[in-house]
Amino acid sequence: MTGPFNIGQAASQSGVSAKMIRHYEALGLLPAVPRTDAGYRQYGEAQIHTLRFIRRARLLGFSMVEIAELLRLWQNQSRASADVKRIALAHVADLERRIAEMQAMRQTLQELASCCQGNQRPDCPILSGLAG
């Protein structure tokens, strides 16, 4: 990998779409990159590496706020790993909460669906349940 890369090449190298690269720049997750005289962005290896970091963090479901904090810690060589672990464990707790909520939704929908005859009649317990 060599550089500089234009935004299309950076997108290809990082797995992040050009639209999202611009979005991450606007959010400040990716610092502004140098531009050519014609105004085209030029990305280097460091920016590609940062984009890959962001992409992996997004795939794990971290929020933009969490990613910003993780990026700050990643770039700080004197960071405490306890700070990183705290963010990761808070995210795990949030995932567990969301999983429990989704399981409860699934259970409710399964119960409503099991009460429905699924025939040509208009009476439907699913709609009645949604209507409260």
Task: Please explain how this structure is put together.
66% of the residues lie in helices and 0% in strands. It is elongated, with a radius of gyration of 23 Å. By secondary structure, it is mainly alpha-helical. The protein is built from 6 helices and no strands. Helix 1 (7-14) crosses helix 3. The model has no long low-confidence stretch (mean pLDDT 93).
Salient structural properties:
132 residues, mainly alpha, Multidrug-efflux Transporter Regulator, Chain: A, Domain 2, 66% helix
End-to-end gap? 58 Å
Which structural category fits the helices and strands?
mainly alpha
| CATH-defined architecture of the largest domain | Orthogonal Bundle
Radius of gyration (Å)? 23 Å
Spans of 5+ residues with little confidence (pLDDT < 50)?
none
Task: Output the CATH topology of the largest domain.
Answer: Multidrug-efflux Transporter Regulator, Chain: A, Domain 2
**CATH C-level class of the largest domain:** Mainly Alpha
Percent helix, as a range, is 55-70%
Average the pLDDT over all residues and give the rounded result.
Answer: 93
- What series of H and E elements makes up the topology? HHHHHH
Task: Summarize the helices and strands and which ones pair or pack.
Layout: H1 7-14, H2 18-27, H3 45-59, H4 64-75, H5 81-115, H6 125-131
Helix pairs in contact: 1-3
Provide a concise account of the structure shown:
This protein is 66% helix and 0% strand. It is mainly α and 132 residues long.
